[in-house]
Amino acid sequence: MKTVGVIGLGNMGRGMALSLKRGGYTVLGFDAAPGVAERLQEEGVSARASIADITRDSDVLILSLPTSAIVEEVVLGHGGVAASAKPGLIVVDTTTAEPNSTRKVAAALREVKVGMVDGPVSGGPKGAASATMTMVLGGSDEDVAAVEPILAVMSAKRVHVGPVGAGHVTKIINNLLTGIHLLATSEAVRAAESVGVDPGKLIEALSGGSGRNSATLTNYPTWILNNTFDSGFTMKLMRKDLRLAMDLLKSQGVNAPIAVEAGRLWAESAQFIGDAEDFNRIVQFVEQK
Protein backbone atom coordinates (compact mmCIF):
# COMPACT_ATOMS: atom_id res chain seq x y z
CA MET A 1 0.00 0.00 0.00
CA LYS A 2 2.12 2.83 -1.32
CA THR A 3 -0.46 5.18 -2.86
CA VAL A 4 -2.84 7.04 -0.56
CA GLY A 5 -5.70 9.21 -1.75
CA VAL A 6 -7.18 12.00 0.37
CA ILE A 7 -10.70 13.22 -0.39
CA GLY A 8 -11.43 16.53 1.31
CA LEU A 9 -8.49 18.94 1.52
CA GLY A 10 -9.75 21.45 4.06
CA ASN A 11 -8.11 22.34 7.37
CA MET A 12 -7.63 18.72 8.38
CA GLY A 13 -7.32 16.89 5.05
CA ARG A 14 -4.60 19.18 3.79
CA GLY A 15 -2.44 18.58 6.86
CA MET A 16 -2.95 14.83 6.65
CA ALA A 17 -2.05 14.77 2.95
CA LEU A 18 1.19 16.66 3.56
CA SER A 19 2.09 14.47 6.55
CA LEU A 20 1.63 11.39 4.36
CA LYS A 21 3.82 12.92 1.68
CA ARG A 22 6.56 13.59 4.22
CA GLY A 23 6.19 9.98 5.34
CA GLY A 24 7.23 8.74 1.92
CA TYR A 25 3.87 7.85 0.38
CA THR A 26 2.61 8.76 -3.05
CA VAL A 27 -0.30 11.04 -2.19
CA LEU A 28 -3.26 11.89 -4.41
CA GLY A 29 -5.76 14.61 -3.58
CA PHE A 30 -9.33 15.52 -4.51
CA ASP A 31 -11.61 18.27 -3.25
CA ALA A 32 -14.99 19.33 -4.60
CA ALA A 33 -13.96 22.99 -4.44
CA PRO A 34 -12.26 24.07 -7.68
CA GLY A 35 -8.50 24.58 -7.49
CA VAL A 36 -8.00 23.27 -3.95
CA ALA A 37 -6.27 20.03 -4.94
CA GLU A 38 -4.29 21.75 -7.69
CA ARG A 39 -2.79 24.21 -5.19
CA LEU A 40 -1.21 21.30 -3.30
CA GLN A 41 0.62 19.98 -6.35
CA GLU A 42 3.62 22.22 -5.73
CA GLU A 43 3.93 20.49 -2.35
CA GLY A 44 3.96 17.05 -3.93
CA VAL A 45 0.30 16.04 -3.76
CA SER A 46 -0.99 14.89 -7.15
CA ALA A 47 -4.44 16.32 -7.95
CA ARG A 48 -7.20 14.10 -9.31
CA ALA A 49 -10.18 15.44 -11.24
CA SER A 50 -12.92 13.24 -9.76
CA ILE A 51 -13.80 10.81 -7.00
CA ALA A 52 -13.67 7.98 -9.53
CA ASP A 53 -10.15 8.96 -10.62
CA ILE A 54 -8.69 9.12 -7.12
CA THR A 55 -10.44 5.93 -6.06
CA ARG A 56 -9.13 3.87 -8.98
CA ASP A 57 -5.56 5.02 -8.39
CA SER A 58 -5.42 4.58 -4.59
CA ASP A 59 -4.48 1.64 -2.36
CA VAL A 60 -5.92 3.40 0.71
CA LEU A 61 -8.42 6.23 0.61
CA ILE A 62 -8.64 8.80 3.44
CA LEU A 63 -11.91 10.73 3.79
CA SER A 64 -11.85 14.10 5.57
CA LEU A 65 -15.38 15.42 5.15
CA PRO A 66 -17.81 17.54 7.20
CA THR A 67 -20.84 15.26 7.65
CA SER A 68 -22.21 11.74 7.28
CA ALA A 69 -24.48 12.90 4.47
CA ILE A 70 -21.48 14.02 2.43
CA VAL A 71 -19.63 10.78 3.20
CA GLU A 72 -22.62 8.80 1.92
CA GLU A 73 -22.74 10.87 -1.26
CA VAL A 74 -19.00 10.50 -1.87
CA VAL A 75 -19.01 6.75 -1.27
CA LEU A 76 -22.44 5.64 -2.46
CA GLY A 77 -23.35 8.32 -5.03
CA HIS A 78 -23.07 8.16 -8.80
CA GLY A 79 -19.39 7.88 -9.74
CA GLY A 80 -18.52 7.45 -6.09
CA VAL A 81 -16.06 5.27 -4.24
CA ALA A 82 -18.18 2.10 -4.19
CA ALA A 83 -18.73 2.24 -7.94
CA SER A 84 -15.08 2.89 -8.77
CA ALA A 85 -13.03 0.94 -6.24
CA LYS A 86 -10.84 -2.03 -6.99
CA PRO A 87 -11.14 -5.01 -4.62
CA GLY A 88 -8.77 -4.73 -1.68
CA LEU A 89 -9.03 -0.95 -1.30
CA ILE A 90 -9.44 0.22 2.31
CA VAL A 91 -11.32 3.42 3.11
CA VAL A 92 -10.41 5.31 6.29
CA ASP A 93 -13.09 7.83 7.29
CA THR A 94 -11.71 10.53 9.58
CA THR A 95 -15.00 12.45 9.61
CA THR A 96 -16.85 12.85 12.91
CA ALA A 97 -19.85 10.95 11.62
CA GLU A 98 -23.07 9.24 12.67
CA PRO A 99 -22.28 5.60 13.58
CA ASN A 100 -25.32 4.04 11.89
CA SER A 101 -24.44 5.86 8.66
CA THR A 102 -20.89 4.55 8.98
CA ARG A 103 -22.13 0.97 9.33
CA LYS A 104 -24.37 1.46 6.27
CA VAL A 105 -21.43 2.73 4.20
CA ALA A 106 -19.18 -0.09 5.43
CA ALA A 107 -21.78 -2.71 4.48
CA ALA A 108 -22.07 -1.27 0.96
CA LEU A 109 -18.28 -1.30 0.58
CA ARG A 110 -18.07 -4.92 1.73
CA GLU A 111 -20.32 -5.84 -1.19
CA VAL A 112 -17.58 -4.69 -3.57
CA LYS A 113 -14.77 -6.22 -1.46
CA VAL A 114 -13.58 -2.89 -0.04
CA GLY A 115 -12.67 -2.55 3.64
CA MET A 116 -13.52 0.34 5.91
CA VAL A 117 -12.02 1.78 9.09
CA ASP A 118 -13.67 4.69 10.86
CA GLY A 119 -10.82 6.76 12.25
CA PRO A 120 -12.00 10.16 13.54
CA VAL A 121 -9.22 12.42 14.73
CA SER A 122 -8.44 14.83 17.55
CA GLY A 123 -5.80 17.51 17.48
CA GLY A 124 -7.15 20.09 15.07
CA PRO A 125 -5.41 21.51 11.99
CA LYS A 126 -2.14 21.91 13.89
CA GLY A 127 -2.19 18.23 14.82
CA ALA A 128 -2.97 17.23 11.25
CA ALA A 129 -0.10 19.33 9.89
CA SER A 130 2.40 18.07 12.47
CA ALA A 131 1.21 14.43 12.51
CA THR A 132 0.50 14.65 16.26
CA MET A 133 -3.20 13.76 16.10
CA THR A 134 -4.93 11.04 18.09
CA MET A 135 -7.14 8.61 16.16
CA VAL A 136 -9.81 6.28 17.52
CA LEU A 137 -10.33 3.37 15.16
CA GLY A 138 -13.29 1.16 14.40
CA GLY A 139 -12.89 -1.80 12.07
CA SER A 140 -11.77 -5.40 11.75
CA ASP A 141 -8.40 -6.41 13.19
CA GLU A 142 -7.20 -7.18 9.66
CA ASP A 143 -8.17 -3.82 8.15
CA VAL A 144 -6.78 -1.83 11.07
CA ALA A 145 -3.49 -3.73 10.91
CA ALA A 146 -3.26 -3.16 7.15
CA VAL A 147 -3.55 0.63 7.43
CA GLU A 148 -1.51 0.99 10.64
CA PRO A 149 1.77 1.96 8.86
CA ILE A 150 -0.08 4.70 6.96
CA LEU A 151 -1.89 6.03 10.02
CA ALA A 152 1.37 5.99 11.98
CA VAL A 153 2.89 8.68 9.77
CA MET A 154 -0.13 11.02 10.15
CA SER A 155 -0.89 10.60 13.87
CA ALA A 156 0.91 10.20 17.18
CA LYS A 157 -1.56 7.90 18.93
CA ARG A 158 -4.11 5.36 17.71
CA VAL A 159 -6.55 3.34 19.77
CA HIS A 160 -8.53 0.50 18.18
CA VAL A 161 -11.80 0.67 20.12
CA GLY A 162 -13.92 -1.96 18.35
CA PRO A 163 -15.71 -2.88 15.12
CA VAL A 164 -16.80 -0.48 12.39
CA GLY A 165 -18.75 2.39 13.96
CA ALA A 166 -17.03 2.20 17.34
CA GLY A 167 -14.52 4.87 16.37
CA HIS A 168 -17.28 7.31 15.56
CA VAL A 169 -19.15 6.50 18.79
CA THR A 170 -15.97 7.21 20.76
CA LYS A 171 -15.30 10.50 18.95
CA ILE A 172 -18.87 11.69 19.53
CA ILE A 173 -18.49 10.97 23.25
CA ASN A 174 -15.13 12.76 23.25
CA ASN A 175 -16.61 15.89 21.68
CA LEU A 176 -19.59 15.74 24.04
CA LEU A 177 -17.15 15.87 26.95
CA THR A 178 -15.29 18.76 25.31
CA GLY A 179 -18.57 20.66 25.01
CA ILE A 180 -19.41 19.99 28.65
CA HIS A 181 -15.92 20.99 29.82
CA LEU A 182 -16.10 24.33 28.02
CA LEU A 183 -19.49 25.16 29.48
CA ALA A 184 -18.57 24.09 33.02
CA THR A 185 -15.23 25.86 32.96
CA SER A 186 -16.80 29.09 31.67
CA GLU A 187 -19.16 29.02 34.65
CA ALA A 188 -16.23 28.43 37.01
CA VAL A 189 -14.35 31.38 35.50
CA ARG A 190 -17.35 33.70 35.85
CA ALA A 191 -17.87 32.61 39.46
CA ALA A 192 -14.22 33.25 40.34
CA GLU A 193 -14.17 36.60 38.53
CA SER A 194 -17.22 37.72 40.50
CA VAL A 195 -15.14 37.62 43.69
CA GLY A 196 -12.02 39.11 42.12
CA VAL A 197 -9.96 36.07 41.13
CA ASP A 198 -7.88 36.57 37.97
CA PRO A 199 -9.05 34.17 35.21
CA GLY A 200 -5.51 33.38 34.08
CA LYS A 201 -4.38 32.49 37.58
CA LEU A 202 -7.54 30.47 38.11
CA ILE A 203 -6.94 28.40 34.97
CA GLU A 204 -3.31 27.85 35.95
CA ALA A 205 -4.39 26.64 39.38
CA LEU A 206 -7.18 24.42 38.09
CA SER A 207 -4.87 22.82 35.53
CA GLY A 208 -2.66 21.64 38.38
CA GLY A 209 -5.53 20.33 40.46
CA SER A 210 -8.27 17.73 40.33
CA GLY A 211 -10.60 20.09 38.45
CA ARG A 212 -8.40 20.11 35.35
CA ASN A 213 -9.94 19.17 32.01
CA SER A 214 -9.46 19.84 28.30
CA ALA A 215 -10.76 23.39 28.66
CA THR A 216 -8.35 24.36 31.46
CA LEU A 217 -5.39 22.52 29.94
CA THR A 218 -5.81 23.53 26.29
CA ASN A 219 -8.73 25.70 25.25
CA TYR A 220 -8.41 28.55 27.75
CA PRO A 221 -4.59 28.92 27.56
CA THR A 222 -4.42 28.52 23.77
CA TRP A 223 -7.46 30.34 22.36
CA ILE A 224 -9.59 31.99 25.05
CA LEU A 225 -7.48 33.90 27.58
CA ASN A 226 -5.52 35.55 24.77
CA ASN A 227 -8.77 36.32 22.91
CA THR A 228 -7.57 34.79 19.63
CA PHE A 229 -10.42 32.30 19.12
CA ASP A 230 -8.70 30.80 16.09
CA SER A 231 -8.67 27.04 16.72
CA GLY A 232 -9.84 26.26 13.17
CA PHE A 233 -12.98 24.46 14.44
CA THR A 234 -16.30 26.26 14.09
CA MET A 235 -19.45 26.56 16.16
CA LYS A 236 -21.35 24.91 13.29
CA LEU A 237 -19.19 21.80 13.44
CA MET A 238 -19.31 21.56 17.22
CA ARG A 239 -23.08 21.99 17.28
CA LYS A 240 -23.29 19.19 14.73
CA ASP A 241 -21.21 16.96 16.99
CA LEU A 242 -23.40 17.75 20.01
CA ARG A 243 -26.49 16.91 17.96
CA LEU A 244 -24.91 13.56 17.09
CA ALA A 245 -24.27 12.98 20.79
CA MET A 246 -27.88 13.82 21.66
CA ASP A 247 -29.11 11.43 18.95
CA LEU A 248 -26.86 8.68 20.31
CA LEU A 249 -28.09 9.12 23.88
CA LYS A 250 -31.72 9.18 22.79
CA SER A 251 -31.45 6.17 20.50
CA GLN A 252 -29.89 4.08 23.27
CA GLY A 253 -32.12 5.36 26.08
CA VAL A 254 -29.12 6.54 28.11
CA ASN A 255 -29.93 8.59 31.21
CA ALA A 256 -27.53 11.52 30.95
CA PRO A 257 -29.09 14.74 32.32
CA ILE A 258 -25.84 16.76 32.38
CA ALA A 259 -25.04 15.83 28.79
CA VAL A 260 -28.60 16.64 27.67
CA GLU A 261 -28.41 20.07 29.33
CA ALA A 262 -25.09 20.73 27.58
CA GLY A 263 -26.66 19.78 24.27
CA ARG A 264 -29.54 22.16 24.90
CA LEU A 265 -27.21 25.05 25.72
CA TRP A 266 -25.07 24.49 22.63
CA ALA A 267 -28.20 24.49 20.49
CA GLU A 268 -29.57 27.60 22.24
CA SER A 269 -26.32 29.46 21.60
CA ALA A 270 -27.06 29.49 17.86
CA GLN A 271 -29.29 32.52 18.44
CA PHE A 272 -26.32 34.52 19.73
CA ILE A 273 -23.11 33.04 18.26
CA GLY A 274 -22.87 32.52 14.50
CA ASP A 275 -22.01 29.21 12.85
CA ALA A 276 -18.76 30.55 11.41
CA GLU A 277 -17.37 31.65 14.79
CA ASP A 278 -14.70 29.63 16.57
CA PHE A 279 -16.24 26.96 18.79
CA ASN A 280 -14.44 28.33 21.86
CA ARG A 281 -16.78 31.34 21.70
CA ILE A 282 -19.25 29.18 23.61
CA VAL A 283 -17.56 30.43 26.81
CA GLN A 284 -19.02 33.87 26.06
CA PHE A 285 -22.55 32.53 25.93
CA VAL A 286 -24.72 33.23 28.93
CA GLU A 287 -28.28 31.98 28.58
CA GLN A 288 -30.83 34.78 28.67
CA LYS A 289 -33.48 34.03 31.27
From TrEMBL:
<dbReference type="InterPro" id="IPR029154">
    <property type="entry name" value="HIBADH-like_NADP-bd"/>
</dbReference>
<dbReference type="GO" id="GO:0016054">
    <property type="term" value="P:organic acid catabolic process"/>
</dbReference>
<dbReference type="GO" id="GO:0050661">
    <property type="term" value="F:NADP binding"/>
</dbReference>
<dbReference type="GO" id="GO:0016616">
    <property type="term" value="F:oxidoreductase activity, acting on the CH-OH group of donors, NAD or NADP as acceptor"/>
</dbReference>
<feature type="domain" description="3-hydroxyisobutyrate dehydrogenase-like NAD-binding">
    <location>
        <begin position="165"/>
        <end position="285"/>
    </location>
</feature>
<dbReference type="InterPro" id="IPR002204">
    <property type="entry name" value="3-OH-isobutyrate_DH-rel_CS"/>
</dbReference>
<dbReference type="InterPro" id="IPR036291">
    <property type="entry name" value="NAD(P)-bd_dom_sf"/>
</dbReference>
<dbReference type="Pfam" id="PF14833">
    <property type="entry name" value="NAD_binding_11"/>
</dbReference>
<dbReference type="InterPro" id="IPR013328">
    <property type="entry name" value="6PGD_dom2"/>
</dbReference>
<keyword id="KW-0520">NAD</keyword>
<dbReference type="InterPro" id="IPR008927">
    <property type="entry name" value="6-PGluconate_DH-like_C_sf"/>
</dbReference>
<keyword id="KW-0560">Oxidoreductase</keyword>
<dbReference type="InterPro" id="IPR015815">
    <property type="entry name" value="HIBADH-related"/>
</dbReference>
<dbReference type="Pfam" id="PF03446">
    <property type="entry name" value="NAD_binding_2"/>
</dbReference>
<protein>
    <submittedName>
        <fullName>3-hydroxyisobutyrate dehydrogenase</fullName>
    </submittedName>
</protein>
<dbReference type="InterPro" id="IPR006115">
    <property type="entry name" value="6PGDH_NADP-bd"/>
</dbReference>
<dbReference type="GO" id="GO:0051287">
    <property type="term" value="F:NAD binding"/>
</dbReference>
<feature type="active site">
    <location>
        <position position="171"/>
    </location>
</feature>
<feature type="domain" description="6-phosphogluconate dehydrogenase NADP-binding">
    <location>
        <begin position="3"/>
        <end position="162"/>
    </location>
</feature>
